[in-house]
Structures are given as structure tokens and as C-alpha cells.
């Protein structure tokens, strides 16, 4: 046997306890022993049972009862503190709560979400289905939602649907199978696939929609687009602009339709030019502004129809329009005022600074999480299912 000089291998006994098996297995490895130098049966027991027991003991999750024993309190009290169980029947002092939380942190306790789900308890996990062409805005909104969820003790699981109703259904099914407490559907509902979604969402509970519900009973959070256009038109009219144009990126997007209607209503209210020739819709029907599209927009709205202000569909379009105007020999804001929408970082970087609309993501996130928690308590009354966020005008030098 290739043992080191002066060291003897401990005697092996067939009926070793698991802890002894672990010890002897480690010692056998240290001495470079194998089946030829140890009893075959004992070796196999060490390699199979002993090693697996060692690993099992090493990897065993901390249980509520482990924390309870160390804290000297009941398991029910620990469950109440860590998992919100027994809300009506368990009471604990603040000192006990702090003690249990400290021990849980020391033992690296992690809740068993699968066990919670089987017992019908909240998992404190929210599913999020994303699908948007406006990635920058939804990324900022998602960040605000994650921060609000974290503050309330929730975690997020996220999927992207890629404008595919089958993919949306798959994510809804997956999230339901994993016991999500609720699901946030953060996607722009394009008119062309709204009918298909009615079947997908039927008989599903605790789902919060963005902008508008698919089914009448669904709660949703919406940023009031018409209010944003009203604020922009008022601001431009107050600055003396008479021919306020609006740029839209798609003829089928629901939000673009709402903006067009709000523009018509508000330029009429402020007694400004109301010709529909001051509405320009991207013929390419894409949200990304190409150079050709920008030149066409300027030609139709400024050169031909003498617009003295342009309300762009978002900050990226606004910046590209400002650059295009400069190429064509116009100055902003001396010749034309330009406004954006979304208040992205670029709005404060570009020269001149861009007047735009802030969609108030923190307020949106709070409203969404309020709806999640209210839906978990039961049916939300019809009058409280819609939460409307009023956006804010951010004035900079472009107007």
C-alpha cells in the first residue's frame, strides 16, 4: 500500500456511521488507497454512501426548525417572520424578529419556493412578460419596477415575447407552473394581435396589463398619453408657436392614434392651425428614424406646410429631426421648436437641450405593485382597476 511513512490507515469497520464514513473516505483518498488495498465492500460503501452523505450534509438547506431551535422560539414564529405565514394567529416581539432575522442571515437561510407553492403560500415572485419596440423606455420602466418590487420583498422573473402571441401564452403558462404570485404584462398591444390575446388571457388571474386591458376585468396601469400631448401643445402655444406639427412613427400603433387624436383636440382648443397636413406618419412604419424618413418629414412639415414646431414621437426622433433641420439650414429653437417624448439621457446631453415628456417610471412602478398586492387580496373593484399616471413636462432649450 502506498501509504506515507509513519502514518497508519485507520481501521475500517463495515458498520461505519455516515460521519465516520466521510472521515475514512477522506483519509483513504489522502493515503491514495483504492479497492485493492481496502475491503471491496467497505470501499464501495465509502465511495457511494459515505461521499453522498457527506455532500448531502454539506448541501442540506437550512430549515425553519433549525432557525427556531437556535433562536429558542417556535417554528410558527419563524415562519411568520421570514415567510409571512400565520398573519392572523402568530404574534412576535420586535426583539424576537430581529433575533430570528440575524440567525437566518448567519445560516444563509433561503425560502423553499416549491414547498411554499405546494402549501398555497405566496412565493413573493412576480413574472414579467416584455414585448416592445421602445426598448430604452421599457428598460427604464422595468428598472423602476424591480426597485419597487425589491423594496416590497418581491423578486422578478422576466421573459420577452417578441410580438408573438404563442410566446406570450408559453410564458404565462410557465409562470403559472412556477407559482408566480402575479404577472405583469409590459408590452405595447398592437391592434393586429389584440383579438388573439383575448383567448390567451381567458381564465387567468392576477395579471396586470400595461396601457389597456385585453379583457374588461383586467387591472392595468397607463401613462396618460393625451395629457402629455395637451401639455406639449399648451407649452408651444404659450411660446408663440402657431403651426404645431406632430410626427408619428406608425399608423397602426394604438398610442400613436391616441396622440393624433389628442393633437387634433388641443390645437383646436388653442386656436392653432388644424390642417391634417401637419400630421406626418413615417411611411417606413418603423420606430427607428432613417435619414430618408427624417428628410421626408422635414420636407412635408417644414418646407411645404410651414410648421414652426414639431412634436416628435420620442426623444430619438426629436434628436434626429433637430440634426436634419441643421442640415437643411434651420436653427432650433430660433426657426423651429422641437419636443421629444420619454426624457431619455440623450435629451439632457444634446445641444440645445431637448424639451420632452417624463413618463414618471417610479410612480408607474408603485401603481403596478399596488395592483399586484391588491389582486392577491381578492377581486379589485371595477372603479379601481385602472391606474393612470400623469406624465410631466420637462422644459429645456429646444423650445
TrEMBL record:
Keywords, ordered alphabetically: DNA-binding, Transcription, Transcription regulation
Gene3D superfamilies: 3.40.50.2300, lambda repressor-like DNA-binding domains
CDD domains: HTH_LacI, PBP1_LacI_sugar_binding-like
Residues of the HTH lacI-type domain: 62-120
Coiled-coil regions listed in the entry: none
Matching SUPFAM superfamilies: lambda repressor-like DNA-binding domains (SSF47413), Periplasmic binding protein-like I (SSF53822)
Gene Ontology MF annotations: DNA-binding transcription factor activity; transcription cis-regulatory region binding
PANTHER family in the record: HTH-TYPE TRANSCRIPTIONAL REGULATOR GALS (PTHR30146:SF109), LACI-RELATED TRANSCRIPTIONAL REPRESSOR (PTHR30146)
Protein name per the record: HTH-type transcriptional regulator GalS
Species for this entry: Blastopirellula retiformator
Amino acid at each position: 500500500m502506498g501509504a506515507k511513512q509513519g502514518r497508519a490507515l485507520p481501521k475500517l469497520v463495515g458498520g461505519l456511521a455516515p460521519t465516520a464514513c466521510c472521515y475514512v473516505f477522506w483519509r483513504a483518498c489522502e493515503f491514495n488507497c483504492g479497492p485493492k488495498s481496502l475491503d471491496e465492500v467497505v470501499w464501495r460503501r465509502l465511495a457511494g454512501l459515505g461521499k453522498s452523505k457527506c455532500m448531502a450534509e454539506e448541501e442540506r438547506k437550512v430549515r425553519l426548525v433549525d432557525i427556531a431551535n437556535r433562536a429558542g422560539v417556535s417554528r410558527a414564529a419563524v415562519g411568520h417572520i421570514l415567510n409571512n405565514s400565520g398573519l392572523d394567529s402568530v404574534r412576535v416581539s420586535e426583539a424576537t424578529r430581529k433575533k430570528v432575522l440575524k440567525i437566518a442571515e448567519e445560516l444563509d437561510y433561503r425560502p423553499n419556493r416549491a414547498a411554499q407553492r405546494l402549501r398555497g403560500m405566496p412565493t413573493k415572485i412576480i413574472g414579467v412578460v416584455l414585448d416592445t419596440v421602445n426598448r430604452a423606455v421599457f428598460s427604464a420602466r422595468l428598472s423602476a419596477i424591480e426597485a419597487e418590487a425589491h423594496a416590497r420583498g418581491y423578486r422578478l422573473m422576466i421573459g420577452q415575447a417578441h410580438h408573438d402571441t404563442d410566446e406570450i401564452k408559453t410564458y404565462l403558462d410557465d409562470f403559472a407552473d412556477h407559482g408566480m404570485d402575479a404577472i405583469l404584462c409590459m408590452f405595447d398591444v398592437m391592434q393586429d394581435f389584440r383579438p388573439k390575446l383575448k383567448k390567451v388571457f381567458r381564465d387567468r388571474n392576477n395579471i396586470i396589463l400595461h396601457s389597456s386591458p385585453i379583457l374588461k376585468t383586467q387591472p392595468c396601469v397607463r401613462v396618460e398619453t393625451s395629457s402629455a400631448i395637451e401639455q406639449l401643445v399648451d407649452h408651444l402655444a404659450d411660446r408663440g408657436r402657431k403651426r404645431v406639427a406632430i410626427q408619428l412613427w406608425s399608423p397602426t400603433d394604438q398610442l400613436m392614434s391616441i396622440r393624433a387624436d389628442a393633437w387634433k383636440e388641443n390645437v383646436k382648443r388653442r386656436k392653432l392651425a388644424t390642417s391634417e397636413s401637419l400630421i406626418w406618419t413615417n411611411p417606413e412604419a418603423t420606430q427607428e428614424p432613417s435619414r430618408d424618413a427624417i428628410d421626408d418629414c422635414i420636407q412635408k412639415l417644414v418646407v411645404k406646410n410651414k410648421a414652426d414646431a414639431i412634436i416628435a414621437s420620442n426623444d430619438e426622433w426629436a434628436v434626429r429631426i433637430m440634426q436634419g433641420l441643421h442640415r437643411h439650414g434651420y436653427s432650433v429653437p430660433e426657426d423651429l421648436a422641437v419636443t421629444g417624448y420619454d426624457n431619455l439621457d440623450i435629451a439632457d446631453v444634446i445641444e440645445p437641450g431637448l424639451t420632452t415628456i417624463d413618463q414618471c417610471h417610479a410612480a408607474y412602478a408603485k401603481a403596478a405593485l399596488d395592483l399586484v398586492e391588491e389582486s392577491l387580496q381578492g377581486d379589485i373593484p371595477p372603479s379601481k382597476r385602472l391606474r393612470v399616471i400623469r406624465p410631466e413636462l420637462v422644459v429645456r432649450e429646444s423650445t
